Amino acid sequence: MRTTITTRHCEIADALRQRAELVMERLVGLSDRATEPTVVFDLGAGLHQVELRLQGVGGKVLVATAEGPDHRTALDRAEGKLRRQLVRVASKSRARRHSDSTPA
């Protein structure tokens, strides 16, 4: 799956671009229904910002944003936030699936 990487008000190194692609590959691997991974790098008010977006098949979009002293740190923080969201969504769907199949 191809990750869309966008920069606003800044330039990023190829190494950081490759790292962002690897991060999104890992996150997409946590969800069996994720599509359209997007990474946005921004530099605003002296802070390095990263936004990760992952769209699900049902139309739900998971978004995680983070700031840091550099883009790599912000990317790592945003990855942690999106990972927690994916785990929460997966556990809710598993719980729903099991409760639906339980005989009354």
From the 3D coordinates, which CATH architecture would you assign? 2-Layer Sandwich
Which CATH class applies here?
Alpha Beta
Mean pLDDT: 88
H/I helix tally: 2
Radius of gyration: 16 Å
Strand order within the widest beta sheet: 1-2-3-4
According to DSSP, the number of beta strands is: 4
Terminal-residue CA separation: 41 Å
Topology:
Blueprint: E1 4-8, H1 14-30, E2 34-44, E3 47-56, E4 61-68, H2 71-101
Helix pairs in contact: 1-2
What this model shows, in words?
There is one protein chain. By secondary structure, the chain is of the alpha+beta class. The chain has one domain: 2-Layer Sandwich (Double Stranded RNA Binding Domain). Helices cover 46% and strands 33% of the residues. It contains two helices and four strands; from the N terminus they run E-H-E-E-E-H. It has a four-stranded mixed β-sheet with strand order 1-2-3-4, with helices on one face. Helix 1 packs parallel to helix 2 (71-101). The longest helix has 31 residues, at 71-101. The relative contact order is 0.16.
In short:
With 104 residues, the chain is an alpha+beta fold. It has helices spanning 14-30, 71-101, and strands at 4-8, 34-44, 47-56, 61-68.
What attributes characterize this protein structure?
single chain, 104 residues, alpha+beta, Double Stranded RNA Binding Domain, four-stranded mixed β-sheet, 2 helices
